């Protein structure tokens, strides 16, 4: 159930799912290659699990999804208490998408000009990068329906079809990325699959590479790190001819695919591969020569450094993230990238028990993009941990309690 158990810690969910499977702490410890004391401390909140690969393995042994263990998704509400995720789900799961043969007559194809739809889509992408996730979720149902109309009217019109499918791919990519950000990983995968299917029909290598980014996002969200690595590397190779021509959009997508695969490698604790993928991304950034935003990638030397720090956090190099992270000033990048970096830095500070600093970082990030902070499972777990170890004397009106309530880390 959406929103169920979001006030529980990962350890408390671990205990719940372990008991539901009928496993003792000793048996789960044996399956994980850990000690019984390790399991006990995690369940009681005495020990934090900061590595995603360990969480993925716990979820596998408990036969639940990674999102079940993380407590995702929770009910998405913006500042006006709107929740349009069900409408996005309805648009994505329309039965008319299942069979053109069965529903072809019901679709009543009509000409839809792709250019106005493309403009609205790119504006929605800008809103996403500015952190206005609620706005994007609000417009996605209509955009998805427009994408379906574009696709249904593409038959027999080759030039129109290529453009229509390119716009559809961008819409579904936006849906996949946004849904992944708010914890709707299953819906994100549906949208990513639709993005790549449409991109295939667009016959554009850049559209396909961009859609592949959506696929890596969806795969990372569910802990399928090997699959994300394979998809990203395959899509990067596909861009070879465009890279040789020096197209800045192709360079940005190429570099961004290597950044996503570097994250996948780091989450499976493969340091050597992570370093190599970051090196290749850095080479692409040097060729680009700027912090650009082609295809809404925000790609360039600064974004490579942000991903280098994010990978270091996944690899457990916490002190390095804290030492180097505060010196990075990504203020010229999209707000979404700035806030994602702030969340990484706060996680690292919290792991070193520097809670006051972590709280300041999160509050600053929340002032930039409230929805990105309040609907992050990582933020929720960090805030919950800090709140539980905060002294009672901090009072019930503290900034930490306020943030915890806004993130639904406590009730």
TrEMBL record:
It comes from the Bacteria. The keyword 4Fe-4S does not apply. The keyword DNA-binding applies. This is Helix-turn-helix transcriptional regulator. InterPro entries: Cro/C1-type_HTH, Lambda_DNA-bd_dom_sf, TransReg_Diox_bact_type. PROSITE patterns: HTH_CROC1 (PS50943). SUPFAM superfamilies: lambda repressor-like DNA-binding domains (SSF47413). SMART domains: HTH_XRE (SM00530). Gene3D superfamilies: lambda repressor-like DNA-binding domains (1.10.260.40). Keywords: DNA-binding. It comes from Saccharopolyspora taberi. Transmembrane segments: none annotated. Residues 14-69 form the HTH cro/C1-type domain.
